[in-house]
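Complex 578.
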Amino acid sequence: MGKKAAAIGSAAAVAALAAVQQKKKIDVRNLGKLAVQTVKFPLPDWDAYDNGVARTPPMGWSSWNVFRNKINEDLIYEVGCAMKNSGLLEAGYQYINLDDCWQSSERDAEGRLQGDLSAFPSGIAALCKKINALGLKLGIYSSNGTYTCEDMPASLGNEALDADTFASWGIEYFKYDFCHNKPIPQRAPCIEKILLRCTETGKEDEWFAADAVLSGSARLVSDGRIESGKYIDGLSSALGTAEFCCEVEQAGEYTLTLCLRKKSYAYKYAEIEVNGEDVYKTKFPPTFALSGDGRHQLTIRLKAGFNVIKISNPVASRQVSSAMQYRNMGQELRRATREYAEKNGIPEKEICYSICEWGLNFPWKWGSDAGNLWRTTPDIKAFWASVLGIYEFNVRLAKYASPGHWNDPDMLEVGNGSLTEEENKSHFTLWCMMAAPLILGNDIRSFVKPDGTPDTDNPTYRIVTNKALIAIDQDPLGIQCRRIKTSGIVDTLIKPLENDELAVCVFNKSSDSVCRTFDVREFACYAYSGLPVSELYRCTELWENSVYETDGNLSVKVPAHGVKVFRVKALNKEGENT
Ligand code: GLA
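Predicted structure with alpha-D-galactopyranose bound:
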């Protein structure tokens, strides 16, 4: 028993523990959320990610779908010029996003990522300035792993440095992939005792396993191989915690030594929370040692008097690991842009943060706490079955989207591969109905004629600049459509819009055209729709720009793999807006 053990029962120690609990007082309004979290996702109670950007789904272009690893600074600048000169910028597209392969395989002398030394010889900061001068924003890419998907250097373990680098270049969009990811270990170390050494005075005290307050599956294990004869086990996978209440004479910096019972060939992880405020994160290597015990040190700060030091490993699953890693990068981006702006006395350039872990770890459940958008599916391909498959999955996730936080069914393939014009229109419409980011993936240089003017006859151009469709995607309510009916072949989607209007899309997945008749009043019956019940509706078909006035009935003929999409407004009897 350590000499401070008696203090655990003292009034001051109890008060210190109570103060920590008080800070975490549970708000009854969060009970539902907590219940879900306790069962499947015991995530920390994070705040929503709020950097003020992407209040409507982001719009831009990415290099990946069409150029893959064949990118260079001249090409990217030409694409930027095309975005401006074609009128895409005016239509709302603003990001020029470098995807994978912009990097050199070698970090610079300071360990910073740098552009490919032959393909981007002027550097990314210079390219960013040129793109900004066009009135556009530059985006960049890395992976939440040791390498990117094209095996270039990536950001796991370098989050702060890479976020600082991107902020200093003026980057405003960041896509964070998932290749070469290494999850945070779920295992926690076994703890025999802790030591606290005051940096200033050199005074050191110790607290043994038996002194700790254990909860959950944390337990004391007897072991003759260690001096004190007991260690704490059961701290893995968010299942248990150990709290030490430690009295120190003076406030300041301390070396915390965790004395370990060395066990297992797995990596381990622990979080050390001090007084419910500061959290120190630390990783432990697998054990190959001959000794049964070992030491692991961190520098922490303590206050004078009683301090509660809580040791746990909150990583209950792969999903939690992924959420924590993505959230961590998001926090670094926010810190980096703020600090860079403060240091240089310039306005902050917030970075739109795009999480790309392909839906593997249910990012729709935690994405809004971690970033601005999250990929929900594997990579899109430029053929119909791929577009359809992604739609089928993403359409179910409506409830997770809101301004600043979007489901991302991947970049557009409109104009690429084997997609027909009808399929391109459907692809674009479905993405707009699903309030998806509109990131073009085709070679938009073809949108500008040799004389420098927009090629308004280009069928792909006509699709992606359809203002009425873009307005559905960009509607300020930021609500993703819901599928209110499906026959398996024909889906009916509704998306509430501002001013009590409603977007209605009839989507025909079959290879034959179909005819359907609807009663618009039925849509008004869904509380979700927000459309008033009325005797008269104005329905504008957004591809043909044809306007129908109806008391409710609406008949449509929808081509194979095609859509009919309407903007619906309730009118009064005189045919005026309600
Ligand atoms: C992954 C992503 C793609 C693209 C490539 C680049 O596959 O999902 O969108 O970024 O990596 O290597």
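The chain has a mean pLDDT of 93.
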